[in-house]
């Protein structure tokens, strides 16, 4: 296994966690949790839904340790699980016809009004992108490489490059930047 800055340590931790060592899993999880949560927030647009998706991600990662092959880092593997969990939460929300009130801003005036407007403009521009373009650009903006995004999304790297390129141009056009 050749992943992460300390590949041998990660391989040892994965092996121990797969054998049931919860402390080893907590160590691995600590390195992936924050960015997995950020990805869930970006994909769901809601902190409550992101928390649900993150919990599903942690459970799925623990249960799936035996299937972790080490072809990517543990964190990238967790991002793939988090992506699927977040998309699952979104599908559930759509089936139930739920309304997300987390993203609704209270009317305000003052120095933050422009920042709120800008944030809402960015969210609207992201929402207008095709789903695969939005996911790819969000993963890439989170700091993943094209190859890592391809691994998470189970897509060819060249497709990822095209999706990110198109998403960036669409966002630039919509936001006037």
TrEMBL record:
Name of the protein: RNA polymerase sigma-70 factor (ECF subfamily)
Listed InterPro entries: RNA_pol_sigma-70-like (IPR039425), RNA_pol_sigma-70_dom (IPR014284), RNA_pol_sigma70_r2 (IPR007627), RNA_pol_sigma70_r4_t2 (IPR013249), RNA_pol_sigma_r2 (IPR013325), RNA_pol_sigma_r3/r4-like (IPR013324), WH-like_DNA-bd_sf (IPR036388)
Entry keyword set: Sigma factor, Transcription, Transcription regulation
One family name in Pfam for this protein: Sigma70_r4_2
Any GO molecular function: sigma factor activity
Residue ranges annotated for the RNA polymerase sigma factor 70 region 4 type domain, each copy included: 121-168
NCBIfam families associated with the record: sigma70-ECF
Domain RNA polymerase sigma-70 region: 33-96
Protein family per UniProt: Belongs to the sigma-70 factor family. ECF subfamily.
GO biological process: DNA-templated transcription initiation
């Amino acid at each position: 296994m050749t992943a992460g800055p300390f590949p041998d340590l990660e391989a040892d931790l994965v092996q121990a966690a797969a054998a049931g060592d919860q402390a080893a899993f907590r160590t691995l999880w600590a390195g992936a949790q924050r960015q997995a949560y950020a990805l869930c927030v970006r994909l769901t647009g809601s902190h409550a839904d992101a928390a649900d998706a993150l919990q599903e991600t942690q459970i799925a990662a623990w249960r799936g340790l035996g299937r972790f092959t080490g072809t990517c880092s543990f964190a990238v593997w967790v991002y793939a699980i988090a992506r699927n969990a977040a998309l699952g939460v979104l599908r559930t929300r759509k089936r139930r016809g739920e309304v997300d009130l987390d993203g609704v801003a209270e009317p305000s005036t003052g120095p933050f009004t422009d920042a709120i407007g800008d944030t809402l403009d960015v969210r609207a521009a992201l929402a207008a992108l095709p789903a695969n373009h939005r996911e790819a650009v969000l993963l890439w903006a989170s700091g993943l490489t094209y190859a890592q995004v391809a691994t998470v999304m189970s897509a060819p790297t060249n497709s990822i490059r095209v999706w990110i390129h198109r998403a960036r141009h669409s966002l630039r056009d919509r936001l006037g930047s």
